[in-house]
């Protein structure tokens, strides 16, 4: 791709296409068994590689799982997940979520959880069904493609930011091909088992996993559309000069 080429669409159509891809990206939790051709996966990653990164470090590395390789890892993780004693001892490679939840993040977290469980008919306190639903993460929600993203452990927090921009590019490029995704931090506690299975070098850290495939729009969980705050709640505009003291 020529990075200096002219837009393939007119200004209005181009804006609409980009906005559509961003706005329709959502976490899909049920997929069709329809395979995703390898050339499509490679095309998505080829587009995402143009993501911004500090000093052009490009810190990401991607592991792509399909077929028996994906099924084998899912089975290995499920065996751990179904053993409370063993899984309870597992530690994540880094803190993705806060150790102490504060408002408004706690309320947002609870809402998306109960909205999903409500659609699925899972009652509050039904730990068995909650466990089974959460365990679907480790089957990539039956998506035909599973992805894992890693960075070098020697890098700092800025490279996590870079990797996040790369992840977003993957998800947007997927939408441009009528595909859906689900980024998954749920895999983090199993990072050692994943590293062993995929032979990931000790010097690399798992950032997250991701499901990729064609959404099963008949599944009730895919009707979940999470709410987003309006621009006015998270933006402060500064348009006047303020005096500063010497």
CATH hierarchy class name of the domain at 26-96 and 139-216: Alpha Beta
- The CATH superfamily name of the domain at 26-96 and 139-216 is NADH Oxidase
Secondary structure tally: strands = 4
What is the radius of gyration? Answer: 20 Å
| Tally of separate helices | 9
What is the annotated CATH architecture of the domain at 26-96 and 139-216? 3-Layer(aba) Sandwich
- Overall pLDDT metric: 95
| Tertiary shape | globular
Sequence of secondary-structure elements: HHEHHHHEHEHEH
**CATH topology call of the domain at 26-96 and 139-216:** NADH Oxidase
Structural class: alpha+beta
Q: Helix share of residues?
A: 40-55%
State the major sheet: 4 strands, antiparallel
Widest sheet: strand order? 1-2-4-3
List the helices and strands and how they pair.
Blueprint: H1 11-23, H2 38-48, E1 61-65, H3 67-81, H4 84-87, H5 105-120, H6 127-135, E2 145-152, H7 157-175, E3 180-184, H8 191-198, E4 204-213, H9 231-234
Helix pairs in contact: 2-7
Pfam families: Nitroreductase
Protein name: Nitroreductase
Organism: Variovorax beijingensis
Structural write-up:
- The chain is of the alpha+beta class.
- The chain has a domain at 26-96 and 139-216: NADH Oxidase (3-Layer(aba) Sandwich).
- 40% of the residues lie in helices and 11% in strands.
- It contains nine helices and four strands.
- Strands 1-2-4-3 form a four-stranded antiparallel beta sheet, sandwiched between helices.
- Helix 2 (38-48) packs across helix 7 (157-175).
- The longest helix is centred in the C-terminal third of the chain and has 19 residues, at 157-175.
- The mean pLDDT is 95.
- InterPro entries: Nitroreductase, Nitroreductase-like.
- This is Nitroreductase.
- It comes from Variovorax beijingensis.
